[in-house]
Task: inverse folding
């Protein structure tokens, strides 16, 4: 919707400034809705043309320039008002045209409203590999894995919505000495029935028990032997390991489903055990592998080639490390998928690891290393469930569902809900996701169930509530029809605010697609929900259309964030 307005403003400006409209369009943006609403719908930033024109302008006062420019522009059938602000020229769109255009565009594009904007038309379609979640079998699924799961899912959703091809990979921690211990542990503490019915929990219990026992030398030796047999591909040992892995994945899939998350590939460190050896060979051939006195293999990453920064890629016994397997995995993914970008989503404690990884790939001559990206996020403190410290993802999901259900039953409306448990799950998940996505991903935050589950304010519960309310309004008053809508009925300040806000959706999506931060979309949806001020009387047909448009945008934004909008609550 904003597109036609931006184009029209750009063509006006182009005549006065004598610059091609394509150069101006990027500097025209929809004005965010604020308390002092009605200022204008669009603004053009003066600074943007000065950057690329003659330098004598720099000394001039931006405000003065804005005033001079504003004076030279004229209103027309699209623009009904022009004014100057500090460094900007502000444009107000003809009110009826604004309402008509926004509504028509939402009707036309439906759930693709925003992503179909011309803002994205110059962005080339790409293939992206996104690796996220990546828990370690038999170990805790901690809050960092949960963050990785929802952030990675958001990035994948956004990319898919924008027309890119996405491969979602889960890179499991499925190899290493822990499996030696687990194998031995299972012989003493394992239970086949439990392994089948709840593999994640059972393997974790076995792992905890055997770790206590692993103090004694005998157990340690047995674990080493088990792992060595695994590395030698002893068939029987391998089949035990495979059973642990397969059953774990089955359960992961079931739990990810509750989150609406799926993967195209379950990969893991085990895949790259052997290929890591080939990587070491390549490093050696390229003269990049250096041996230390201790016998470990390192790659020099210092600018001065003085071994001040090294990355250890080989143990003294010749075996590979975490980073060596990651090198092999990156190369393999390039061969397999010929991706344009590859994104790894983990907490920021692994930033160094990924910097080293990308540097080594570059040194090996892989220019695509520059197209690898680590999306990192901060730490979450204080998430506890009734069972105590978080160990399993399922506990978090159960906890938020039961807390939400309790909140819902204490309000009267719940009785009419067809499936309260499922609704509670979806609303609860929205609460978790919004709490997590409100700030910058890189910042740490203190987790709070009460804060997350508040029914008003900047929460996922509020978004879900707004969506459900809008849905039921449409239910009660009949579906909104765009034909014959009297847009003159949408001229009160509240309605205009909503329209202005709807106009900005593409710009918000664009920002999130650039920096991969969900918070722009989150605050956009929260503002939309606040701006709606749903009145339960006097629902004209025109208002119904506006509500329908708002709900459509709300739903598509929520889905991008990984939230399933509810229709009642
Ligand atoms: N399994 C790892 C962990 O839990 C995360 C894996 C991240 N991805 C990677 N390619 N190294 O810490």
Result:
């Amino acid at each position: 919707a904003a597109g036609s307005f931006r184009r029209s403003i750009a063509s006006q400006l182009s005549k006065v400034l004598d610059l091609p409209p394509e150069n101006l369009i990027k500097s025209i943006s929809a004005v965010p809705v604020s308390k002092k609403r009605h200022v204008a719908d669009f603004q053009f930033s003066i600074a943007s043309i000065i950057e690329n024109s003659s330098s004598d302008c720099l000394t001039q006062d931006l405000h003065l320039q804005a005033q001079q420019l504003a004076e030279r522009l004229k209103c027309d059938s699209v623009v009904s008002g022009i004014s100057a602000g500090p460094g900007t020229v502000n444009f107000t769109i003809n009110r009826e045209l604004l309402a008509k255009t926004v509504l028509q565009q939402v009707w036309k594009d439906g759930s693709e409203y925003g992503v179909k904007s011309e803002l994205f038309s110059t962005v080339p379609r790409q293939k992206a590999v996104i690796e996220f979640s990546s828990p370690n079998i038999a170990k805790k699924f901690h809050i960092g894995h949960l963050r990785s799961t929802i952030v990675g899912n958001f990035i994948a959703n956004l990319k898919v919505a924008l027309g890119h091809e996405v491969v979602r990979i889960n890179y499991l921690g499925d190899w290493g000495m822990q499996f030696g211990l687990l194998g031995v542990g299972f012989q003493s503490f394992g239970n086949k029935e439990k392994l089948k019915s709840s593999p994640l929990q059972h393997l974790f219990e076995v792992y905890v028990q055997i770790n206590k026992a692993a103090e004694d030398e005998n157990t340690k030796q047995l674990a080493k032997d088990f792992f060595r047999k695994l590395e030698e591909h002893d068939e029987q040992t391998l089949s035990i390991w495979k059973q642990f892995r397969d059953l774990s994945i089955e359960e992961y899939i079931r739990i990810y489903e509750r989150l609406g998350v799926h993967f195209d590939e379950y990969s893991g460190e085990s895949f790259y055990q052997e290929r890591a050896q080939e990587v070491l060979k390549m490093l050696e051939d390229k003269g990049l592998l250096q041996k230390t006195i201790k016998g470990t293999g390192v790659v020099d990453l210092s600018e001065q080639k003085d071994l001040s920064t090294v990355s250890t890629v080989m143990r003294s016994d010749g075996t590979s490390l975490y980073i060596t397997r990651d090198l092999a995995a990156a190369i393999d993914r390039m061969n397999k998928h010929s991706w344009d970008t590859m994104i790894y989503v983990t907490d920021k404690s692994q930033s160094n690891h990924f910097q080293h990884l990308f540097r080594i790939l570059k040194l090996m001559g892989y220019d695509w290393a520059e197209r690898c990206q680590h999306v990192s996020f901060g730490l979450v403190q204080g998430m506890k469930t009734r069972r105590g410290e978080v160990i399993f993802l399922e506990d978090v999901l159960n906890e938020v569902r039961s807390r939400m259900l309790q909140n819902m039953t204490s309000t009267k409306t719940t009785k009419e809900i067809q499936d309260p448990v499922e609704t509670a799950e979806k609303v609860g998940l929205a609460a978790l996701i919004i709490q997590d996505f409100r700030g910058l991903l890189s910042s740490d935050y203190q987790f709070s169930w009460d804060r997350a589950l508040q029914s008003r304010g900047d929460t996922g519960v509020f978004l879900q509530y707004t969506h459900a309310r809008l849905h039921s309004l449409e239910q009660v008053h009949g579906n909104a029809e765009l034909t014959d809508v009297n847009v003159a009925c949408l001229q009160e300040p509240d309605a205009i605010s909503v329209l202005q806000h709807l106009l900005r959706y593409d710009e918000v999506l664009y920002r999130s697609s650039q920096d991969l931060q969900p918070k722009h979309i989150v605050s956009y949806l929260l503002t939309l929900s606040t701006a709606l001020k749903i009145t339960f009387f006097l629902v004209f047909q025109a208002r119904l259309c506006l509500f329908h448009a708002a709900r459509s945008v709300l739903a598509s934004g929520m889905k991008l964030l990984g939230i399933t909008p509810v229709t009642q609550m």
User: Anything to note?
Assistant: The first strand starts at residue 28 and ends at 30.
